[in-house]
Amino acid sequence: MREGPHSTDDINEEVGGDLFDRYFTGEHTITQVADRTWFVTADYVNLTAYETDVGLLLVDTGTAESGETVHELIRKQTDAPLHTVVFTHGHLDHAFGLKPWLEAGEKPRVIAHENVVRRFRTYQRTAPLNSHINSVQFGIAEGISWPRRSEEFTWPDTLYQDRLTLDLGGERFELYHAKGETDDATWVWAAGRNIVSSGDLMLGILPNCGNPQKVQRYPEEWADALEAIASVGADVLLPGHGKVIKGADVIRERCQVTAAALRAIVEQTLAGLNEGKIHEEILASIEIPEELAKHWYVDALYDRPEFIARNLIRKYGGWWNGYSAELMPAPMPQRAREIIELAGGVERLIARAKELKDSDPAMACHLAEWVALGAPESREAQECAIEVFEARAEDEIALMARGIYNHAVRRSEEAIERIEETQGS
Ligand SMILES: [Zn+2]
Hints:
Blueprint: H1 19-23, E1 27-34, E2 37-43, E3 45-52, E4 55-59, H2 67-75, E5 82-86, H3 99-103, E6 109-113, H4 114-125, H5 127-138, E7 158-160, E8 163-168, E9 171-178, E10 185-190, E11 195-199, H6 219-232, E12 236-239, E13 245-246, H7 248-274, H8 279-285, H9 290-293, H10 305-316, H11 332-342, H12 346-356, H13 361-374, H14 379-395, H15 399-424
Parallel strand pairs: 4-5, 5-6, 6-7, 11-12
Antiparallel strand pairs: 1-2, 2-3, 3-4, 8-9, 9-10, 10-11, 12-13
Helix pairs in contact: 6-7, 7-8, 7-10, 8-10, 11-13, 12-13, 12-14, 13-14, 14-15
The site of zinc ion has 7 residues, from loops.
C-alpha cells in the first residue's frame, strides 16, 4: 500500500491491457488532485473526498470490504467531520463502504437518486439471483455474497429526481441524475473546483451497457450524460474506475468520442429494426466507425458493441429472434441428442468442433455445446467442450463474454467429476 498522495503527472497516458490490467491495481491509494480534494482508489473502485468549510463531502464509499481502508486513508489526510455522502449509484462497489465511518460516530447526510432505494429493495428480493449472475460474470465458482438484510444497506436519507444543488459552507456542488449502466446514476459537478466526479459514467472503456445477464441498460441516456459532462468544461474528471483524467480538452474529447460510439450503435440498431432485419442480422452489422474505434478508451473490454445492440433491441422490440422454431423450441439437450444421432454419433461432432476451433470459433462452440449437452455421460464430449470454450475465452477481450465461456468450461469440468464419481461407485 502506498503512503500519502502521489504524483499525478502521468495520468492521461494510454492505458493498455484488459479490464483487470486497467482497474485491478490491487492497491489502495489516495491522491490529492486539487486543494482539499482527494481521489481514492481501493482495489479497483474510486471515490472522491471534498473537504469544505462545513466538513467532508464523500462521493461514493467503495465496497464493504474496502471501507475500512478507505476510511483510514482519508483520515490520514483530514480530520474534517463527514458532512455529506453522495452515492453515484447503488452498486456494491460504490455504496457499501460507509459502515466504518458510521461506527466511528460520524453522522452524515446520505444523498442518492430516488432509484437507488428501488435498487436496494430489488437487491433484497433477488439476492440469490444476483449472487449467481455475478459468479458467472466474474468466474467465482462459490458465488458472491449479496446483501439481503436491511442492515446490510446504507439507506439514503435524502432523495432527489433530476437535479440537486448542495450548498456546503458557501460552496456549490451540482448533482445531476443520469442513466447509463444503471437507472439511478448521479454525477457531481464541483463548479468552484472545476472538477467532475463522474461515477461509472466514464470508465475509459466502451460503456458497459450491454450486459448479457443483467437488467436493462441505457446507451442513449448514457451518451446524453457524457455530452452533459463534456459541456461543463471541467479541468479534472474523477471516474468511478480507472485513472484521473486531466485537462478540459482531453475530458471533452473522451466524453464526446465515447458518446458518439454509443450513438453509432444506437443508430445502426434502430436502422436494422426499421428495415425489418432479424436480430442476428442486426448484430452482425454493428460496427463502431474507425475514427471513433481507434481510441483506446472505447476498447470493448467489458461489453461488446453487439451486446449493447441487444440491449437496445430489448428496449425497442420483443425477444423473439426471428426464427419461427425458436418461438417455442424443443429443449436444447433434446435437440443436441437428435443432432448427435443424425451425425451418426458424438465422435464426428467432436472431431468437427476441434477442426473448426480456430477458423470458426462460433460454430465450434455450437458443436461443442451440443455434444456436452447431448452426451453428458461422455468424457470425450465434455473434454471437447472444455477445449473449445477455453480457446474462445482466451481469444475474447470482453469480460462479460469471457465469463460466460468460462462458465461453460466449469460446467463440463463438473460433468467430468460426476462421470468419475459414477465410475468410482
Ligand atoms: Zn463501479
